[in-house]
Amino acid sequence: MNNLQQRLLASSVGIPLVLAAIYFSTEPLYRVSFAALLSLIAFFALKEFFAITSVKGAKALTLPTQLFTATLLFSAICLPHIPALSWLIVLIYFLFSFLIFFRSGSEPVTNLGATFFGFLYVTAPLALIALIPGMEEAEKNGRMWLLYLLVVSKSTDTAAFFFGKLLGRRQLAPYISPKKTWEGALFGFAAAIVFSLMFSLVGSHYGFNLSLAGSALLGALLSIGAQIGDLSESLLKRDAQLKDSSSLPGLGGVLDIVDSLVFTSPLLYIWIKYGLSNGVFA
């Protein structure tokens, strides 16, 4: 089975699970399933991230970070009416990490840096994804916004991959990722705008309100964010001399799947929180 067939098989299994989790993300009785899926993704993404940092000699707090992340995600999704609890979990996590390294005294700058960067790089974007379905500013369309995020981000990835392989000539970032090309990046950018416009047109029949101008702009911003996220993970793997973050058939690793969301989820959260509420980007 070649790589393309593995990708298609993995997608045929993964996409229905993700869609089901999104559908139930705002249902009180089923929120736990959404929280469980995000926690599972975070668990393996953090494991892969800290495996990369360990190659460079850092000894991060892998299990504590995974446990605190799961607690934070369940809190944000299942208890959204108590936002102070999420902040308390983050505060306790940072205090706990400092205390652990104060006691051990072993290269605290390197190890704390790797630990906190993992929390920022993996946990923070997933926490924002956890918050989007329940945002008041989303006007009860949180599930649609979350689906929109995935469609635009992954359309960028998919178009950049296929058109890069088909038409790619000029390398985009030869040191970071020799196989990524300007042609692939441009097609990924165009695909994001097209899918963003299509989603807005279809979504308007289901209460998803985003103007065509806003849709084109947001699609462009998310595409740039997705490609920077992809390159950022490639930079980490290149520094650790790793081809993939793990060995999932057709996917590489969990970190390879969520890398495009590192910057797109904060961008979308800011758009909804401060743009829609003020009518700026509606």
From TrEMBL:
- Organism in which the protein naturally occurs: Estrella lausannensis
According to its UniProt record, in which pathway does this protein act? Answer: Phospholipid metabolism; CDP-diacylglycerol biosynthesis; CDP-diacylglycerol from sn-glycerol 3-phosphate: step 3/3; Lipid metabolism
- One Gene Ontology cellular component annotation? plasma membrane
Please name the GO terms of the biological process aspect recorded for this protein, alphabetically.
Answer: CDP-diacylglycerol biosynthetic process
According to UniProt, the name of this protein is Phosphatidate cytidylyltransferase
Q: By which gene is this protein encoded? A: cdsA
**Record membrane topology:** Multi-pass membrane protein
Q: Which UniProt keywords apply?
A: Cell membrane, Lipid biosynthesis, Lipid metabolism, Membrane, Nucleotidyltransferase, Phospholipid biosynthesis, Phospholipid metabolism, Transferase, Transmembrane, Transmembrane helix
According to its UniProt record, which reaction does this protein catalyse?
A: a 1,2-diacyl-sn-glycero-3-phosphate + CTP + H(+) = a CDP-1,2-diacyl-sn-glycerol + diphosphate
What's the family? Belongs to the CDS family.
Please name the Pfam families in this protein's record. CTP_transf_1 (PF01148)
A Gene Ontology molecular function term of the record:
phosphatidate cytidylyltransferase activity
